[in-house]
Amino acid sequence: MSRWLTHIAIALTVALSLGACSRMGLAYRNLDVIIPWTLSDYLDMNGEQKGWLDERLKEHLSWHCTTQLPGYLDWLDRLQTMIATNQVTDAGLQARAVEARQAIAESARQITPSAIELLQGLDDKQVAEMNDAFAKDQRKRQEQYLKPSLDQQIKDRAERMEKRLNDWLGPLTPSQKQRVAAWSKALGEQNTQWLANRAHWQKQFSAAVAQRQSPEFPQRIETLLVDRERLWTPAYREAFATTEAQARALFVDLMAESTPTQRQRLLTKIEGVRKDFSDLKCLKAAKG
User: Fold this and answer.
1) Under a CB-based contact definition with an 8 Å cutoff, are residues 36 and 71 in contact?
2) What distance lies between CA 226 and its chain's CA centroid?
3) Which value, in Å, is the radius of gyration of the alpha carbons in the chain?
4) How far is it, in rounded angstroms, from Cα 140 to Cα 136?
């Protein structure tokens, strides 16, 4: 859901984190940048609602660019330093992940009042369409991630990760490929817990929107958007902690085995993301 620094979500691997960062830099005006769920995927807004939202987005983007982006540049600097000095450690990655989560929560908190106001203005037909879209989303992801056998899920997950890593590091060595395969196998049935938790969140969101005129609605939406972890299923909470630890271990090991060419490619890619951010007009205007 937070495709926003999304899920720069949790900086467990530079490949995953920078993937989100680069999408953000290249499509900064996209709605996904500043809200933790994609309205356009689930809501069919009328002209008046779209116009209202466009104006709100301009305000949020201005706030986001002038107050949040400088922190992202500092975050990228710390990431670059870890790689350039060959200090990619589990502790360092945990620190970057905490920083990323804090940044996500700050922006989610900032836009929550707008999300609440928009949701309170939905009619029953729009809410029904949103719920249908949630159901369609669940079916699509189950088809893609759960229908294949577990062995195939593990293979597909390894291939997706290898593709991301190839983009940021260049071709992996045979040893690195084996490490990625071992990482994917260790995650086992992670797809099951992830999708079950996603459906759990959507169910709670739908229930909240059904009561959108109640006095408790603003607080329920704030919890759903800002404090999502409080609503995780116990199984997913445990699975997520394991997933984080496995991803950190993977990246630490990959960097320990990385070649000078791979490290230089990664640093160059990070610098490209940094330049995308630095060149934004709103950031330059803020610096005056």
Assistant:
1) no
2) 13
3) 20
4) 6
Backbone angles phi, psi at 114, to 5 degrees: -70, -40
Question: Would you kindly state where each structural domain of the chain is located, as residue ranges?
Answer: 14-287
pTM above 0.85, yes or no: no
User: What would the 3-class secondary structure string for 138-182 be?
Assistant: HHHHHHHHCCCCHHHHHHHHHHHHHHHHHHHHCCCCHHHHHHHHH
Each residue's pLDDT tens digit, 29-80: 333 333 444 555 677 778 888 788 778 877 877 887 888 888 888 988 998 9
What distance, in Å, lies between the first and last C-alpha atoms of the chain?
34
User: What pLDDT, in 10s, does the model give residues 207-247?
Assistant: 999 999 999 999 999 999 888 889 998 889 988 889 989 99
**CB atoms closer than 10 angstroms to residue 218:** 18
How far is residue 118 CA from its own chain's centroid?
Answer: 22
